[in-house]
């Protein structure tokens, strides 16, 4: 950029400020035009972004209804609080079960004889072998841990599927070994290799033997399986959480006694899934009205008013609302209107009567399922909606192409700003050259004028003398 620090010195007319004003005046109309264009483009991108988000939000509830499982919510109720029940909706079916629990599963517990002290009384050395559920774990007892507490700590550190502790009975200390899991299959067997050479007597390490033949430990709590009758069928399981008897149902027992469990279809849960779809659809309509609607009060249309892409999306979605699934032309449930989903003509929004839906689901569950979900290779309305929305959001869709085009327009606007900067820089340099030349010329003229005046002033006395 040419220096203009001395511009105007020769004439007092052409200044750097004048150059700035002329450049600014030339720049301003183009800047205003580009600003307005950029603001509108960014507003359109934002509007398309809001539209995309609303469409994406619509996809999730439609996916939930597009499979038969989505139309088959279940609930389970137990008549007895001591019998808890949970269900896996994907696997459960309707049913009623009479359950009588006669025995709870429990973990085995073994206790040693009494010792005078837990930290100083020695208990012998050798190797303890704990067998729990068919898994054997060897534990070395030597001079570093041959006390009651030392044995307990060694067992706990071994990860043998049992826990050990020392109980102060008031008259001595006893080692207690308990299985970590309930059931007969997790019963404990203890065998030893005693350094004193006798593996079954009651001295040294062999006093902890409990191997099914020799019982030098006392079984204070027996290992038991849970026993119950389900609809008269005897069942036994190693835990109090029974999950593999009735498909999709898990029973958790905490007391013995009789209970009744009913598993029924939960029409309320299904209707809530449909309500979510209705809410998301209506939210989409609000977005469309905001960005593409017409405000009669202000006489202004939305930023995307008249946009063909939005009209196409609206037309496609509305078409689904009146679709009759092939093969259901003569059924009791043919369209969304038959299950309580109707359209308000004045707003384009959906209205949902849950009572109508629940009644139809109760009376015609298979038809309602076929209306929404894919059945025997025929797409229901929800499946069709998922496919439609997927296409609308695809990277090569009209919506994506429109957004990409606007992003490219922003790039072009920036290019125009860069070009404007170059033009203004060129204009500034040209004005500086022109003003500098004019300033120099005026300075020369001023200098010549001063010289002429000086000469005329010098001649004046001579003229006066001659006269």
Report on the structure:
With 467 residues, the chain is an alpha+beta fold. The protein has three domains: 54-69 and 268-399; 74-105 and 225-265, no CATH class; 109-221. It has helices at 16-65, 148-158, 267-292, 308-321, 354-363, 365-372, 381-393, 398-466, and strands at 74-78, 83-87, 95-103, 109-111, 126-132, 135-141, 162-168, 173-179, 188-194, 218-221, 226-230, 233-237, 241-242, 249-253, 257-265, 294-295, 300-301, 341-343, 350-352. It has a five-stranded antiparallel β-sheet with strand order 1-15-3-11-12, with no helix packed on it. The protein has a four-stranded antiparallel β-sheet with strand order 7-8-4-10, with helices on one face. A three-stranded antiparallel β-sheet has the order 2-14-13, with no helix packed on it. A hairpin with a 2-residue loop joins strand 11 and strand 12 (233-237). It is elongated. The two termini are 60 Å apart. The model is unreliable at 1-5 (pLDDT under 50).
Task: List the defining traits of the structure above.
467 residues, alpha+beta, elongated, flagellum
Total DSSP helices: 8
- Please report the distance between the alpha carbons of the first and last residues: 60 Å
Rg estimate, integer Å: 46 Å
Residue share in helix: 40-55%
Q: What is the N-to-C succession of helices and strands?
A: HEEEEEEHEEEEEEEEEHEEHEEHHHH
Largest beta sheet: what is the strand line-up? 1-15-3-11-12
Helix/strand-derived category reads: alpha+beta
Ranges with pLDDT <50 over ≥5 residues? 1-5
Give the overall average pLDDT.
Answer: 87
The total beta strand count reads 19
SS strand fraction? 15-25%
Overall shape = elongated
């Amino acid at each position: 950029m040419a220096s203009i620090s001395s511009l105007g010195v020769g004439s007092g007319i052409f200044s750097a400020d004048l150059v700035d004003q002329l450049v600014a005046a030339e720049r301003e109309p183009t800047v205003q035009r580009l600003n307005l264009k950029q603001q509108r483009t960014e507003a359109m991108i934002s509007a398309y972004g809001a539209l995309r988000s609303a469409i994406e939000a619509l996809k999730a509830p439609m996916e939930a209804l597009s499979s038969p499982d989505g139309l088959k919510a279940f609930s389970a109720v137990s008549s007895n609080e001591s019998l808890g029940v949970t269900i896996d909706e994907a696997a459960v079916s309707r049913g009623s079960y009479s359950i009588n629990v006669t025995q709870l599963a429990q973990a085995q517990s073994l206790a040693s004889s009494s010792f005078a002290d837990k930290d100083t009384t020695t208990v012998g050395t050798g190797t303890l072998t704990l067998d729990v559920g068919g898994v054997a774990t060897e534990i070395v007892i030597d001079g570093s841990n041959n006390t009651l507490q030392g044995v307990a700590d060694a067992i706990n550190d071994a990860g043998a599927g049992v826990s050990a502790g020392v109980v102060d009975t008031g008259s001595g200390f006893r080692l207690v070994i308990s299985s970590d899991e309930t059931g007969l299959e997790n019963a404990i067997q203890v065998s030893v290799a005693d350094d004193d050479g006798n593996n079954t007597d009651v001295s040294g390490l062999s006093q902890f033997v409990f191997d099914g033949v020799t019982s030098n430990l006392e079984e204070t709590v027996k290992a038991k399986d849970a026993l119950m009758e389900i609809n008269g069928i005897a069942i036994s399981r190693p835990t109090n959480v029974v999950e593999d008897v009735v498909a999709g149902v898990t029973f958790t027992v905490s007391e013995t006694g009789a209970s009744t469990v009913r598993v029924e279809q939960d029409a309320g849960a299904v209707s809530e899934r449909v309500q979510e779809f209705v809410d998301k659809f209506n939210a989409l309509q609000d977005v469309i009205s905001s960005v593409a609607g017409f405000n009669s009060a202000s006489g202004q249309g939305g930023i995307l008013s008249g946009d063909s892409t939005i009209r196409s999306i609206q037309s496609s979605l509305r078409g689904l609302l009146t679709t009759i699934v092939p093969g259901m032309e003569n059924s009791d449930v043919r369209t969304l209107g038959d299950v309580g989903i109707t359209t308000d003509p004045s707003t384009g929004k959906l209205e949902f009567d849950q009572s109508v839906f629940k009644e139809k689901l109760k009376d015609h569950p298979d038809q309602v399922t076929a209306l929404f979900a894919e059945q025997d290779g025929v797409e229901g309305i929800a499946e069709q909606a998922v496919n439609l929305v997927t296409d609308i959001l695809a990277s090569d869709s009209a919506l994506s192409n429109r957004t990409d085009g606007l992003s490219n327009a922003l790039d072009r606007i920036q290019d125009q700003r860069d070009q404007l900067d170059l033009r203004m820089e060129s204009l500034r340099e040209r004005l500086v050259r022109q003003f500098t030349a004019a300033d120099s010329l005026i300075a020369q003229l001023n200098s010549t004028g001063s010289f002429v005046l000086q000469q005329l002033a010098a001649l004046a006395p001579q003229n006066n003398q001659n006269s």
